[in-house]
Write a structure and sequence with these properties.
The structure is a homodimer of 256-residue chains.
Chain A (H helix, E strand, L loop, with lengths): L5 E5 L7 H11 L3 E7 L18 E4 L7 E5 L3 H12 L6 E8 L6 H4 L1 H11 L4 E6 L12 H14 L5 E7 L9 E4 L5 E11 L5 E11 L7 H6 L2 E8 L8 H4 L5
Parallel strand pairs in A: 1-2, 1-5, 2-4, 5-6, 6-7, 8-11
Antiparallel strand pairs in A: 3-4, 7-11, 9-10
Helix pairs in contact in A: 2-4
Chain lengths: 256, 256
């Protein structure tokens, strides 16, 4: 790439989150950065889009730097659609989403606003990466992973991401010198077992809070969960063709 | 199955939608039905879940019949989580979601609340089917597809749905005698090209409405789009392992 790449930055924790501010700083070292991110936290929004309501999207400047920034009232996927189809003059060379405060490994990819933004970009033909750190705290320390975010992004620009594939990158919560390296993995087969905390509101009406435990029964050493537990960064190539091709033959034996 | 199967019914158009009322009637002919559905329309919610807010879920009765019904303030995925982990005494034998007013074929599966509910059930180990009719109208005519919904459901109960697979069933908008049959398909590679309608609100602030055109450049005759265009019902086996296994080898050639 002769000129500086155009990089779209978004997330789901909202435009003021420390994770996206870190990501903007790193991307400013690599390319021309345009930020289009939600004006409020949108975690666990999955691939929601706004079709029955209006969207606001305003230029803003949260921190110093050469980046252009827009704050948007919609979901992460809305932000990408607005950026690509309304705000940017040309298709970006790369979309990066995150750095998410919290894991998007294994089944979390399904619920993740961070990954849905990255996936939306990939659907629109833009090479795309979602970054997540296994630390839910607003004050999470992103410094140990800066050099890895930069390295993975540079390798993606150099090699090209395979067509119709999005990278789901998760970082263990470790000191820089305790991170063992990077593993390309498959999505572990794990899931949440929910428990609902049932309470009464001040008017006496029952309501519920979702809580749950993460259960991983997948012992494979080629999974993202395994890599992260061992101190590696996991990269799962992720796709939006959801067809279970292997089961088509079996379904064709049904009497339909 | 010796006893009547326990069938969980949900949707994304809301508990009063004609599509789910039709689905409840059909399921009442097959099993013991419990309905847990959103109290308001939740289209295009993707796989959103409610983690930072409360959920209400109340017993209700919309139409006559033996079914038990609950109206829930959350997303389609929330409804399934609440049903399985809080409301039902045992894991249901089947979850059916829909009948959606509008298509969930090809890339629409990613944005679909109907399919996210079905997928949530599958993640929790419950055989699961999403049904959608290619008619966005609230007054869509579901009568031509009743016998097919019943047939597919009965076949699923008889044969068992392959593990970790959800069926994404779409019906063409046709008269009953013009429906040509059922095809097991792959998800077509198609996408939406968005256009935003930019307007000014009464206070003079810019806002946007999302609109778009559906573009299918996949000419394969094994796709859901092809089947539907020819008057067939499409069944796409759909999975929640999003790993692009075929690209792992290529990513392992990167200098990471």
């Amino acid at each position: 790439m002769k000129n500086k790449p155009l990089i779209l930055v978004t997330n789901d924790d909202g435009i003021t989150a420390p994770g996206i501010r870190t990501l903007i700083e790193i991307m400013n070292e690599i390319g021309t950065v345009v930020v289009v991110a939600p004006d409020s936290p949108q975690s666990a929004m999955g691939h929601a889009i706004t079709i029955n309501s209006t969207l606001y999207c305003d230029p803003i400047k949260i921190t110093d730097g050469p980046q252009e920034e827009y704050s948007c009232s919609g979901t992460p996927a809305d932000c990408v659609k607005l950026a690509v189809n309304e705000l940017l003059d040309r298709k970006p060379d790369l979309c990066v989403s995150g750095i998410n405060h919290g894991s998007n490994s294994s089944i979390n990819v399904i619920y993740s606003g961070t990954m849905s933004a990255a996936m939306e970009a990939a659907i629109e033909g833009i090479p795309s990466i979602g970054f997540s750190l296994l630390d839910f705290s607003w004050n999470a320390d992103f410094n140990p992973i800066r050099k890895y975010v930069k390295k993975i992004t540079e390798q993606a620009l150099l090699n090209g991401i395979p067509k119709d594939v999005v990278l789901n990158v998760n970082f263990p919560k470790r000191k820089e010198d305790e991170i063992k390296g990077i593993k390309v993995c498959r999505q572990a087969k794990a899931n949440w077992v929910e428990e609902f905390d049932k309470r009464k509101n001040p008017m006496g009406r029952d309501y519920y809070w979702l809580t749950g435990n993460f259960i991983n029964e997948d012992n494979g050493e080629d999974t993202d969960e395994w890599a992260l537990s061992q101190g590696y960064i996991s990269i799962v190539p992720t796709q939006f063709d959801l067809t279970a091709h292997h089961s088509i033959q079996q379904l064709n034996t049904w009497s339909l």
